[in-house]
Amino acid sequence: MPAKRPPIPLSRERIIDAALHIADGQGLRRLTMRRLGDALQVEAMAIYHHLPRGKDALMDALAEHVTTVHVEPGESWQESARAWCRASRAALREHPGVLALALTKPPRGRAAIAIREQTDQLADAGLADAAGAVRALRAYVFGAVAVEVQQSGWAEPSGDENEPWRPPSQGGGSPGADTDFEYGLDALLAGLGRR
Amino acid sequence: MPAKRPPIPLSRERIIDAALHIADGQGLRRLTMRRLGDALQVEAMAIYHHLPRGKDALMDALAEHVTTVHVEPGESWQESARAWCRASRAALREHPGVLALALTKPPRGRAAIAIREQTDQLADAGLADAAGAVRALRAYVFGAVAVEVQQSGWAEPSGDENEPWRPPSQGGGSPGADTDFEYGLDALLAGLGRR
DNA sequence: ACCTGAACACCGTTCAAGT
DNA sequence: ACCTGAACACCGTTCAAGT
Fold this sequence. Notes:
Protein name (chains A, B): TetR/AcrR family transcriptional regulator C-terminal domain-containing protein
Oligomer: homodimer
DNA-binding region (chains A, B): 32-51
Order of helices and strands of chain A: HHHHHHHH
Organism (chains A, B): Streptosporangium amethystogenes subsp. fukuiense
Number of strands of chain A: 0
Structural class of chain A: mainly alpha
Helix content of chain A: 55-70%
Region (Disordered) (chains A, B): 153-181
Domain HTH tetR-type (chains A, B): 9-69
Shape of chain A: globular
Largest sheet of chain A: none
């Protein structure tokens, strides 16, 4: 007879992971405090101890998580920007269930800091209007991922089916998505340089 | 003593208008079948007669509404594309409350048809990869509006305040947003021509 | 055909209480 | 400090019933 293993203590990180899993697997509409509690083997009310502002705080945390990206400075501002865009795209594609939050919530906390860092990085590398550039790069990544995920057929899963979401790196997304992304990124970087 | 005026009959259109008003004014999270019923002077259950699939159908209809754009063909494919992007941006900016739906729901119904129409229009005007171009243009508009609305400080209104949303055409958006948009659009169109 | 009223299962959140 | 249980106001949706 299996011993009752000691319960893993709840933590902000475990909560966010479980929430991402539910949102990606069943859609944001089915991400519920009670369901989240079940997934964590805990009563829903326990969550409030770690996220005092409740579901709003959870939503903010999810947007922050999927939107916070760090990248080492590259050889040029172009390479830095390229790496940052690729990382941002990867982070967003990994969790289509919270894409709506990521595109919609104003950056706060670590996400806002990461944006400032990236702006400084590009400015230090000699780019004139780094703030404008970061705005344009974020817009590009947001738009690209939005249409990509739309096209991939991802939608709030019906709930009846229990098929987990597989990131479109192999099979889900159309094969041209990567090259489309890189092509447009090249064009944008060229344009930002000339500005 | 005022006579009880005869109730305006419910219709799909009136429902959608009221829903947009609530979403823009108080945020999508507060758009509720019951609240929507109140706004329409009707019991919530009456809505199901006009939108049989209930709230899902409402969400689909909102995304479709804010995402369906028609434009007359211009002198060149560049002008057609430019007009289409401007109109799309305007439609999305007008209703920040449902932006998350618009960026996230795959185009269906009239929205899907409008996209096909625009693709044909560009192809007829001589553009080689019209489908790829429309994908890129949609991505550009989506991303631009997403960062713009984020920056404009719009967020699910707190609900305590009763300040209605004013579109950023005058006052809300930073003044550079329009020129930023046009600048990037020019660059994208140039890139699409050379491809 | 169109709308209502009552009912059901489920939701977010609070609060006092347990350990 | 961390979690539970009961409670409250509010959801989406159904269904039989009214007109």
